[in-house]
Amino acid sequence: MQYITLNNGVKMPILGFGVYQIADTQTQQCVEEALRIGYRLIDTAAMYKNEAQVGLAIKASGIKRENLFITTKLWVSHANEKDAYKAFEDSLKKLGLDYLDLYLIHQPYNDVYGAWRAMSRLYKEGRIRAIGVSNFYPPKLKDFCLYNEIIPQVNQIELHPFYQKHYEQSIHNELGITTQSWASFAEGKNNLFSNEVLTKIAQKHHKSVAQIVLRWLVERDIAVIPKSVNPQRMQENFSIFDFALDSNDTKAIASLDANTTIFLNHDDLECMEWLKNLD
């Protein structure tokens, strides 16, 4: 496993296992399998409604807590100074843990400054090893860094071959923030798994399209959290450290960048309303 050193010195696996959109009835089994394969970073969120099942899988695994890296996220409705404490305690209880490795503000809405004050206090108390944000665009992120004592360790953003975000990553690098990709496979949109460019590169390296995408991301020093409920694909996604892409590969992948979201525009007013109504 390769690791990324966050701006506070904490080491985070560059490859983890995500549980977004995994039903609560499947989550424990899937996480247990991921841990058996060798994943040590598990990414969940209060909004995913499966933190408790992740916690059961962690307990069943028997893996020492210090060998795991567990991430969860603070949802919009609790993103303020008062509610963030309770939300944190609720997540910790569901996960059955004494501390978190990474706690993220899930969306850039509500009183994120108040939420950050609460998270910063928990961080200073040692109850969270690293704190960060998700879906923060460069202007918001820069503002956040200028006016907070502690800058985020991570920004988790939509990032895949059709939305490559080189500019955003450059801003993260400038600020000392680690980039982490969600929807690394674009959730299969735009026929990613049968894309001609990616398929050709996959055939060249005797790998799957998913492995090519993940390898492309980690070679850019972007952390990834692929999700699958299929044990064979979990293993496949974990096996990306035995080959490297060449300059022709990366140039071909660069040609796929449409430079626009295929999910959510967080500057859009309807997006704000839609996310609020997910509670």
Keywords:
279 residues; alpha/beta; 8-stranded parallel sheet; two-stranded antiparallel ribbon; 13% strand
Sequence of strands across the biggest β-sheet:
3-4-5-6-7-8-9-10
State the share of residues found in helices, binned by percent.
Answer: 40-55%
Using the CA coordinates, give the radius of gyration: 18 Å
How many helices in DSSP terms?
A: 11
Net shape: globular
Largest sheet: 8 strands, parallel
**Class based on secondary structure composition and strand pairing:** alpha/beta
Got a strand count?
10
Mean pLDDT metric: 97
Strand-residue proportion: 5-15%
Through-space gap between termini: 36 Å
Extract low-pLDDT stretches.
Answer: none
- Secondary-structure element pattern, one letter each: EEEHEHEHEHEHEHEHHEHHH
Write the layout of secondary structure elements.
Layout: E1 3-5, E2 11-13, E3 17-18, H1 24-37, E4 41-43, H2 51-61, E5 69-74, H3 81-95, E6 102-105, H4 112-124, E7 131-134, H5 138-146, E8 154-158, H6 166-175, E9 178-182, H7 196-205, H8 209-219, E10 223-224, H9 231-238, H10 247-254, H11 269-276
Parallel strand pairs: 3-4, 4-5, 5-6, 6-7, 7-8, 8-9, 9-10
Antiparallel strand pairs: 1-2
Sum this structure up briefly.
By secondary structure, this protein is an alpha/beta fold. The protein contains 11 helices and 10 strands.
Describe the structure.
The chain is an alpha/beta fold. The chain is 42% helix and 13% strand. The protein contains eleven helices and ten strands. Strand 4, helix 2 and strand 5 form a beta-alpha-beta unit. The mean pLDDT is 97.
